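Need a sequence for this fold. Nothing fancy.
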């Protein structure tokens, strides 16, 4: 049985403003109806595959759970990295977990920021690589290149004639991301494939590889795994112990050192959606090469991406040539296509100036639903809040603000002090400073309310929690 290991802890700054630190690209619907994370999970689901092991970060644990449910999938385990340490510690953490729960499994490591167009062809490639992986090989998947791209690492085949082979082939070497001239030269030889960062190996093989080639990572992550604790379906690890592991990619730590590597060629359609240029490339274009997503209008545009993610914000592109225009509810990116790979620099600049939009968006996700700020002034804030069916806010109080709630959809069960009442559409609730309160949705439909906060301090950290079904220890 093959256990998919989905890595989904990255930040994706080059896809700002759609991708933020609070909701990175793998959880955003960039192309189609599914997020990249959901697509990765569905790619490795069905006969021959066990339920996946997910490795993610603390801020994303409830997003992972919700998106798994939306996709109709479950997880064998959700491992919470205390902080990002790159892919090598994450892969080993999953391997050590499986050594205890499924020691004979094959691990299929999948990044969650890629798009595989032909799931059937990909599963066939995985099946073709199983026997060698079971026999002790580390299989890396090589993508048939379509252009001399400088954004990917490359894999050099020992035999150029094997680039379309139906079985894993000997690998000569890994090549780091090249410059444009080197990429063009490599493409011309026919000996190179793109490095997708997708791997297949047995649990025993990869643990042995870490023992041999990265003993410092093995020692640190083994100590972390020994202290694993279950927390409401999530597996947590000690932060200080985790910090002892070097932050390094699995390519550097293992793949460039191991002798038992083979490459499985794959030409069934693949995309790494690492920046807006690649989103543009993989989208449906009009006859002038323009991509329109959401409420947008393109007039005399060519080679341009126009994207609006807010129903009330219509974007018009007029006479644009080779441009990127991406609008969300609180930020707009306008840049030439050539600057697409540099959007991460924009995020760094915004962070330097403490611009909130660098990190968070207008909609803030919570395990019980979400809220978004509609208006804000010096001593007030207005929010729209959705509480999912069966969900509940924590029993809490605020030291610096009062709140007024107006129910606009659904039926809410509200606690204020010792009183518990049901509130219907058009009914309102007043919550004084310091009053213990909670909203529960005991129905099968969402509850939507408008919240008006007034007070001297309106920060999200003005929360004292008394009971919380999600066991959150922080205001989030």
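Here you go.
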């Amino acid at each position: 049985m093959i256990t998919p290991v989905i890595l989904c802890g990255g930040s994706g700054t080059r896809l700002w403003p759609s991708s933020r630190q609070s909701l990175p690209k793998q959880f955003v619907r960039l192309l189609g109806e599914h997020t990249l994370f959901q697509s990765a999970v569905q790619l490795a689901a069905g006969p021959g595959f066990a339920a996946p092991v997910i490795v993610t970060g603390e801020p994303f644990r409830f997003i992972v759970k919700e998106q798994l449910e939306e996709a109709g999938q479950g997880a064998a385990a959700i491992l919470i990295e205390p902080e990002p340490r790159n892919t090598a510690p994450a892969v080993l953490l999953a391997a050590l977990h499986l050594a205890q729960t499924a020691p004979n499994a094959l691990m299929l490591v999948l990044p969650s920021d890629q798009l595989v167009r032909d799931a059937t062809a990909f599963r066939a490639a995985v099946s073709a690589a199983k026997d060698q992986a079971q026999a002790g090989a580390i299989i890396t998947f090589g993508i048939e290149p379509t252009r001399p791209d400088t954004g990917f690492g490359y894999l050099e085949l020992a035999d150029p004639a094997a680039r379309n082979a139906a079985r894993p082939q000997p690998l000569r070497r890994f090549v780091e991301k090249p410059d444009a001239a080197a990429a063009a030269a490599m493409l011309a030889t026919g000996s190179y494939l793109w490095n997708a960062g997708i791997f297949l190996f047995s649990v025993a093989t990869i643990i042995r590889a870490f023992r041999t080639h990265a003993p410092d990572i093995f020692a640190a992550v083994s100590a972390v795994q020994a202290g694993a604790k279950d927390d409401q379906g999530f597996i947590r690890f000690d932060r200080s112990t985790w910090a002892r592991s070097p932050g390094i990619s699995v390519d550097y730590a293992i793949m460039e050192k191991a002798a038992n590597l083979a490459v499985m060629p794959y030409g069934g359609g693949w995309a790494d959606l690492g920046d807006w240029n690649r989103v543009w490339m993989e989208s449906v274009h009009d006859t002038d090469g323009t991509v329109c997503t959401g409420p947008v209008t393109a007039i005399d545009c060519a080679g341009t991406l126009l994207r609006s993610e807010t129903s009330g914000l219509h974007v018009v592109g007029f006479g644009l040539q080779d441009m990127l225009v991406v609008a969300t509810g609180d930020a707009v990116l306008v840049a030439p296509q050539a600057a697409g790979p540099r959007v991460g620099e924009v995020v760094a600049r915004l962070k330097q100036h403490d611009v909130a939009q660098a990190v968070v968006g207008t909609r803030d996700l919570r395990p019980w639903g979400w809220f978004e700020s509609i208006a804000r002034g010096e001593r007030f804030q207005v929010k729209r809040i959705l509480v999912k069916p069966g969900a509940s806010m924590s029993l809490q109080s605020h030291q610096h603000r009062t709140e007024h709630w107006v129910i606009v959809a659904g039926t809410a069960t509200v606690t204020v002090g010792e009183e518990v009442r049901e509130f219907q559409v058009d009914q309102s609730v007043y919550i004084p400073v310091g009053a213990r309160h909670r909203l529960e949705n005991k129905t099968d439909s969402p509850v939507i309310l408008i919240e008006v906060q007034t007070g001297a301090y309106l920060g999200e950290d003005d929360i004292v929690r008394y009971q919380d079904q999600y066991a959150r220890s922080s205001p989030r």
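For context: The radius of gyration is 24 Å.
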